[in-house]
Amino acid sequence: MADYTINQYRGVYKRALELYQDEKYKECAFMFETVVQNDPENYQAQYYLADMLYYGKGVAKNMKRAFQLYSTAAFNKVTEAQYMVGICYLEGNGTMQDSTQAVAWFTEAAKYAHTMSQYYLGLAYLKGEGIHKDVPRAAQWLVHAAKAGIVDAQREAAMCYEELGKMKGAATLYLAGAENGDDYCMEKIADCYADGNGTLQCTELAIHYYEMAAEKGNVTAQLKMGNRYFKGEGVKQSIKNAVYWYQKAANNENPEAQNALAECYHLGDGVPKDDQTAINWWSKAANGGNVDAMIHLAENLTDPTDEFIDEDLVTAKYWWSKAAEAGDAYAMYRLGDCYERGIGVSTINIDDAYKWYRLSAQNGNQDAIEASKRFTKSLNGKVKVKKG
Prior knowledge:
Blueprint: H1 10-21, H2 25-38, H3 43-55, H4 63-75, H5 79-91, H6 99-110, H7 115-127, H8 135-147, H9 151-163, H10 167-179, H11 183-195, H12 203-215, H13 219-231, H14 239-251, H15 255-267, H16 275-287, H17 291-302, H18 313-325, H19 329-341, H20 350-362, H21 366-372, E1 375-377, E2 383-385
Antiparallel strand pairs: 1-2
Helix pairs in contact: 1-2, 2-3, 3-4, 4-5, 5-6, 6-7, 7-8, 7-9, 8-9, 9-10, 10-11, 11-12, 12-13, 13-14, 14-15, 15-16, 16-17, 17-18, 18-19, 19-20, 20-21
């Protein structure tokens, strides 16, 4: 009769697992340690002990030992451990950072339908980290994770489909992400409904999702709601509501909204007219790179329309320069005028005036075309203003 040996540590593991699932980590830590030391083929116990060491559940964190235990379990086909080894390599926790090894372990776990491994594998293909960039392959893995309800995967997969020109699939995934509370997906599905891109055109649904995204703090959606209320597109025109959303987006450092809000204060649209507040918002927008704001700011500092705003030609010239360097033809013309007439500069500079007039003229500005006619260039390259 064959001998039959009872594994006395099997019951210890079972009780440890029950305590672990009840989040009684201190009580189960010693039990898992006992099983790992005395039953080395219990790879699940190694995984759970590694998990406790990795996250500091009931024990002091020990990333290095956690990685060792995860690795042993991973090599013995514990899928969750394979995923965690991938995370360790990806983030350099308990081992040297190695994107290639991370991809290898994510691939192994993804074969067994581990959804987070599918997500990270998709990201690796999307970014070309640890493996060659391959957007179609990225989309395939991300969609697997998206179908399992991982919201980040729904968003990233939708972006892949959009990049690949597959807008029907993109819209479907954006809608799934929106329904799961992702504000970026809300904004993007609103775009799809607004334009009829990948789905039927429906202004009502577009407004619905823009508003949802805006309420969740999506700055782009806040700006779009402001623009729609300002123009009366899909909603009843309301400058007051436009200002409300512009203010939200402006407070969230959106330069376009800051510029729009500044114009409302400058014109007294939806708010009391206040040029100082307008200047403040234009300054923020200009510093954020908004070219329209740079021009408005320069114009109002060159020729203030409010008695409480001081003329500041030096700062105006600075913003004419910034807008001109950003490629705005009108700003190029005004910068040329600064150099020709000595506005905001220490000395008149005919060469720079001619340069900016010429660039502006080449970009179609009629005033600059006329201004350029006043200049002549000698054979030695010297620029001068024509007489008469």
